[in-house]
């Protein structure tokens, strides 16, 4: 079946502009995650959605970052007034939910490479 | 404190040889899961293997095995019979949380593995 998709694949924007990044999770996956990966670094958690529960926003680096999710479907990550330090690859992942004892690994999309000039 | 530590920025191995990638973790949660992901130069994140904290046996998936030493809080990845296609960045990750398969992953900084012929 189809995997996690993200759009756009690349985005170049000027400092100070707002950007929206989109994620389409795997159908039936109730959990959706956003991570950021700076060049040569590991992945940094941003935000996590699960069903109708309040999202875990504990990883958002500033109030310029926000995200929404429509039901158990598409999610949009918005960065307002972009700064050069926002340049990174933004990765979305989705997973099933279930009882412990299984991995329920996160499936990652191809990412959006954001460059702020 | 770092939740996941990968001390080897780079590793080199000859084709057909085995290689061990190190990972130590830090958590006070008695229930957690450990993951290894592979990230080729194309950028996609590929799930390799999972170990639950209560699993009695070390996880294995084909040529991948996880050397889980709970008392030492280490979860090293062993790749047997290395192939040229194994050249990639490898990330160790942890999910905390008793009884839940959901939640953010904490990632290490990664190990760049190069397999030479």
Description:
The complex is a heterodimer of chains A (about 120) and B (about 120). Chain A is mainly beta. Chain A has strands at about 5, 10-15, 20-25, 30-35, 45-50, 65-70, 75-80, 90-95, 105-110, 110-115. The N and C termini of chain A lie far apart (about 35 Å). The mean pLDDT of chain A is about 90. With about 120 residues, chain B is an all-beta fold. Chain B has strands spanning about 5, 10-15, 20, 25, 30-40, 45-50, 60, 65-70, 75-80, 90-95, 105, 110-115. In chain B, strands 2, 5, 6, 10, 11 and 12 form a 6-stranded mixed sheet that branches. Chain B has a 4-stranded antiparallel sheet with strand order 3-9-8-7, with no helix packed on it. Chain B has a two-stranded antiparallel ribbon with strand order 1-4. The N and C termini of chain B lie far apart (about 40 Å). The model of chain B has no long low-confidence stretch (mean pLDDT about 95). Chains A and B meet through strand 4, strand 5, strand 8 and strand 9 of A and strand 5, strand 6 and strand 11 of B.
Question: What letter string, H or E per element, gives the SSE order of chain B?
Answer: EEEEEEEEEEEE
User: What structural class results from the helix and strand content of chain B?
Assistant: mainly beta
Quaternary structure state of the chains depicted: heterodimer
Would you identify the regions of chain B where 5 or more consecutive residues have pLDDT less than 50?
Answer: none
Envelope shape of chain B = globular
Low-confidence stretches of chain A: none
C-alpha Rg of chain A (nearest Å)? 14 Å
User: What is the number of strand segments of chain B?
Assistant: 12
Distance between the termini of chain B: 38 Å
The DSSP helix count of chain A reads 0
- Taking Cα atoms only, what radius of gyration of chain B do you get, to the nearest Å? 14 Å
Number of strands of chain A: 10
Mean pLDDT, all residues of chain A: 92
Shape of chain A: globular
């Amino acid at each position: 079946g189809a995997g996690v998709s993200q759009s756009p694949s690349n985005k170049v924007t000027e400092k100070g502009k707002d950007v929206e990044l989109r994620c389409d999770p795997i159908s039936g996956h109730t959990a959706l995650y956003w991570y950021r990966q700076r060049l040569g670094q590991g992945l940094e958690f941003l935000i996590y959605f699960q069903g109708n529960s309040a999202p875990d926003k504990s990883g958002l680096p500033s109030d310029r970052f926000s995200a929404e999710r429509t039901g158990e479907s598409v999610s949009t990550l918005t960065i307002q007034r972009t700064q050069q330090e926002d340049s990174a690859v933004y990765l979305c992942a989705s997973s099933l939910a279930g009882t412990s004892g299984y991995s329920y690994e996160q499936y990652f999309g191809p990412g959006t490479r954001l460059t702020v000039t | 404190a770092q939740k996941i530590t990968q001390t080897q920025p780079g590793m080199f191995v000859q084709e057909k040889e085995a290689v061990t990638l190190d990972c130590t973790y830090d958590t006070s949660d008695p229930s957690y899961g450990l993951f290894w992901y592979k990230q080729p130069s194309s950028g996609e994140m590929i799930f390799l293997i999972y170990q639950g904290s209560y699993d009695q046996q070390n996880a294995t998936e084909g040529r991948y095995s996880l050397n889980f030493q709970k008392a030492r809080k280490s979860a090293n990845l062993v790749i047997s019979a290395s192939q040229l296609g194994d050249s990639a960045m490898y990330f160790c990750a942890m999910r905390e949380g008793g009884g839940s398969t959901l939640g953010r992953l904490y990632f290490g900084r990664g190990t760049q593995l190069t397999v030479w012929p």
